[in-house]
Amino acid sequence: MEMTFRWYGEDDPVTLKNIRQIPTVRGIISAVYDIPVGEVWPVENIQRIKDMVEQHGLRLSGIESVPVHEDIKMGKDSRDKLIENYKQTLRNIAECGIDMVCYNFMPVFDWTRTDLAYELYDGSNALIFDECVARRMDPLNGDLSLPGWDSSYTKEETADIIKNYSEIDNEKLWKNLEYFIKKIIPVAEEVGIKMAIHPDDPPYSIFGLPRIITGKEAIARFLDIYDSPNNGLALCVGSYASNPTNDVNDILRYALERNRVNFMHTRNILLKEGKSFEESAHPTEYGSIDMYKVIKALSDYDWNGPIRPDHGRMIWGETGRPGYGLYDRALGATYLSGLWEAIRNMENKDLLQKKFGKET
Ligand SMILES: [Mn+2]
C-alpha cells in the first residue's frame, strides 16, 4: 500500500512541507479547486498541482474529487454536455500521469455531520453525527452550512436543488448513475484511470434525499453496472461502518476479492445509540472498527493502491478545516503504517519458516 495524505491546495493551512515530514507518507491526494463544477479542468491547472507536490519530494497519487454536477445526478438534458466535460477532465488528468480519481454520487450534500467540533472525553474535538439533531435540521431553512464539501451552494440554490430531487427516488438515481458510469468508464479504461466511488456518508437517506452507495448489496450492483478494474471503489471504512448493519470487514474482503478497491479511506468511528456516531482516533481501541483486520485484509490480497488516514480530530490546540488538521491525521498515518509493517514482517517470517522449516 502507498500511504497518502489529503491536501486542499495552496489555501490549506496544512502545507506540503508539513506533510513531507510525516513518517511513511509518500503521496498526496488533491484536486483542482478553482474550476467550477461541470467545467473541464485544464491540463495546466492539474500539472501545476503535480509540480508543487513533486517539488516537495512527494507523488500526486490521485485526485479527490472530480465532483459530479447535480444535473448528471438528476438526469437532466444538460447531462450529456457535462459528461463530455467530465470525460475530457479524465483525459487531461491522465495526460499529467495521474491514474486514480475519486468521486461520489451523493445528491446535494457531501458528507454530513451535526457538529464539527464536539468535545470528546479527552478534550479533543471531533466531528459527530447525532441522529436526533439531524432529524430536526431543515436544509431548506439554511440550517446546513457545513464546510468541507467539494461544492457549495447558496441557500436559494440548495432549496431549488432539493425541490428537484423530490421527483427522484433511489431507483431513478441508480439509473442516472448507470448512465454516467457507462459513458465514463470506457474513457477511464482507454486512458488508464482507476475510478473510485466514495460511499454515501453517512450511508443512508438523509433529509428525504435518495442515497444509494450504502453497503455490500449496493457495491455488488454498482460493480455489475460495468465490470472493469477501472470501475472501482474508494473503500471508506468509516463511512460504511456508520450504518451499524454494515460489516466493513466483509465488505472490504468482498471488494478485494473482486479486485475493485482502487482507493482506501481508513478512519475509525465510535457507534453510539441508533445511527449516531463520533469520529474517534484511528486505533482500534477507540472505535467500532477493528483496524488490524482492515490492514490484514489489504495485506492478504497484497493490495498496493493509495490509502489515506481519513478525518482526524483536532488535538493540541490546532484549529483549521474540520476533520482535516495535521496532527491527528499524521498520527493516523503512522499508526496504519505500523500495523502494515507488523503484519508484513510477520507474514514474511511465516513464509521463510515454511520455506526453510526453521525459526528465522
Ligand atoms: Mn471517506
Spell out the blueprint of helices and strands.
Elements: E1 2-6, H1 16-20, E2 27-30, H2 43-55, E3 59-64, H3 70-73, H4 79-95, E4 100-104, E5 115-119, E6 125-129, H5 131-136, H6 155-165, H7 170-191, E7 194-198, H8 216-225, E8 231-236, H9 237-241, H10 248-257, E9 261-266, E10 269-271, E11 277-279, H11 291-300, E12 306-309, H12 327-356
Parallel strand pairs: 1-2, 1-12, 2-3, 3-4, 4-7, 7-8, 8-9, 9-12
Antiparallel strand pairs: 5-6, 6-11, 10-11
Helix pairs in contact: 4-7, 10-11, 11-12
The structure holds manganese (II) ion (MN).
Strand content: 15-25%
Mean pLDDT: 91
Show unreliable segments: none
Tell me the count of domains.
Answer: 1
